[in-house]
Specification:
By secondary structure, the chain is an alpha/beta fold. The protein is built from 15 helices and 15 strands. The structure holds pyridoxal-5'-phosphate (PLP). The site of pyridoxal-5'-phosphate has 15 residues, from helix 7.
């Protein structure tokens, strides 16, 4: 009798030789009809719903999820499994600058899925090289390392700073968020995220955001780098004082300390320039290391760590990632970058962001104490908890989220239209006193 395993293999080889493999490819080449048009029916999610596994009881309890089960999206609209549509002002937490199911994004995903899926980093691949080149040209950096998320981009930045300087301490800011893997968590301020996992490494000293003198006072001969968000996101969208970044860079350069700009949330065109730091110091501000992720491939998993100067590079083996820089996702990210420019979405972010801020300010609501941010990265500071407003907006068909308990945070797709803004502003006016 033949061993069972060898029988299985024989069957699989026969299957691969015959039609189905080829047919599968052919069907992928066809862009689904009207990929950009919106359907309010849940579409092919029905098999998932009918399987009995459609609720989240098998997922770990990492997020306090809202009571909405989303199944599809188009542009700035998402649809739940009952067929109700919402205006998506969260945008995957700044992950979908092109919006959901943008036809050119869908076309790009399909095209790159037909190419190399993952050839490993043992080889050169054109897509990774091209994306690195484009990001360096935009950012003024010299080289890129690709990973799969924001926290990984920051892990790489911290390791790179340690490897290049031989020093092991960092400075970060109060209320900073840099990720949840252990290295990035060290630089994340919120005690409830950090405490259960202490002692953390590398050691990080925290100083108030926006205060260069505090950073100067905290520097030690063992400080490798300062890590900072050009606009803080998770803390409720906090914009630093005008010359903060430039003065910080001057301080770091005078003390031989590296400056890492975490653009994971503020980057990818959201604030009107591809990276927020590019709008500082009339082009004179250039950090030593830049990290990005979120919207880089319009929501597909990718992170990037960019660095300048001859010393800021890894040696083979010092760092790596199996998935990072794969041909598929870097190919899509390159197209997303081109589309942002071609469709003038950074300009639109500024236009629509200004309209939102002006409209909320003009309402003079008693329970709103401030509106702040830049482009489509906006925080609306409420007098108390922001959750009631968030929950009142949902039945009106508008999704927002809350940052730092008291701020409503808006990070919508950059394709937001005049009508979308009017709808958001109208709903906000109705539910907020
Ligand atoms: C500024 C900043 N850095 C890092 C991260 C972590 O990114 P990720 O969740 O992709 O690991 C986030 C996520 O919100 C962020 O806002």
């Amino acid at each position: 009798m033949k061993p069972v395993a060898s029988l299985h293999l024989k069957k699989e080889r026969a299957h691969l030789k015959s039609g189905p493999h080829v047919d599968a490819h052919a069907s992928l080449r066809t862009v689904p009809a009207k990929s950009g048009s919106y359907s309010s029916t849940p579409g092919n999610s029905s098999s998932v719903q009918n399987s009995g596994f459609s609720d989240s009881r098998f997922l770990m309890n990492t997020y306090a999820r809202y009571p909405v089960s989303l199944v599809s999206g188009n542009g700035c609209r998402v649809c739940d499994k009952t067929g109700k549509t919402f205006l998506d002002m969260i945008g995957g937490i700044a992950c979908v600058p092109l919006g959901h199911a943008h036809p050119r994004f869908v076309e790009s995903v399909q095209r790159h899925a037909l190419g190399l899926t993952n050839a490993s980093n043992l080889f050169h691949t054109e897509n990774a090289a091209r994306l690195a080149g484009k990001l360096c040209a935009i950012s003024g950096m010299d080289r890129a390392f690709f990973s799969n998320s924001g926290t990984e981009a920051n892990e790489a930045a911290l390791k790179l700073a340690m490897a290049a300087t031989g020093k092991k301490r960092f400075i970060a800011c109060t209320d900073a968020f840099h990720g949840r893997s252990l290295g990035s968590l060290s630089a994340t301020f919120e005690p409830k995220y950090r405490k259960p996992f202490e002692p953390l490494s590398p050691p990080v000293d925290f100083v108030p955001y926006g205060d260069v003198a505090a950073i100067k006072a905290a520097l030690t001969p063992r400080t490798a780098a300062v890590i900072v968000e050009p606009i803080q996101g998770e803390s409720g969208v906090i914009v630093p004082p005008e010359n903060y970044l430039l003065e910080l860079l001057e301080l770091c350069e005078s003390k031989d300390v590296l400056l890492i700009a975490d653009e994971v949330q503020s980057g990818n065109g959201r604030t009107g320039t591809y990276f927020e730091y590019l709008s500082h110091g009339g082009g004179r501000f250039k950090p030593h290391i830049v990290t990005t992720a979120k919207g880089l491939a319009n929501g597909l998993p990718i992170g990037a760590t960019l660095a300048r100067g001859i010393d800021l590079d890894f040696k083979p083996g010092q760092h790596g990632s199996t998935f990072g820089g794969n041909s598929f996702v870097t190919g899509v990210a390159s197209d997303v970058l081109d589309l942002l420019q071609k469709e003038k979405l950074m300009e639109n972010a500024v236009l629509q962001g200004n309209r939102i801020q002006a409209a909320i300010s003009q309402m003079n609501k008693k329970s709103v104490s401030a509106v702040r941010g830049k482009g489509l990265m906006i925080g609306i500071q409420m007098d108390g908890a922001a959750k009631p407003a968030m929950e009142a907006l949902r039945p009106k068909g508008v999704l927002v989220n809350v940052a730092h308990d008291c701020a409503i945070r808006l990070l919508p797709p950059l394709v937001l239209s005049n009508n979308d803004v009017n709808e958001f502003v109208g709903a906000f006016n109705e539910v907020v006193v």
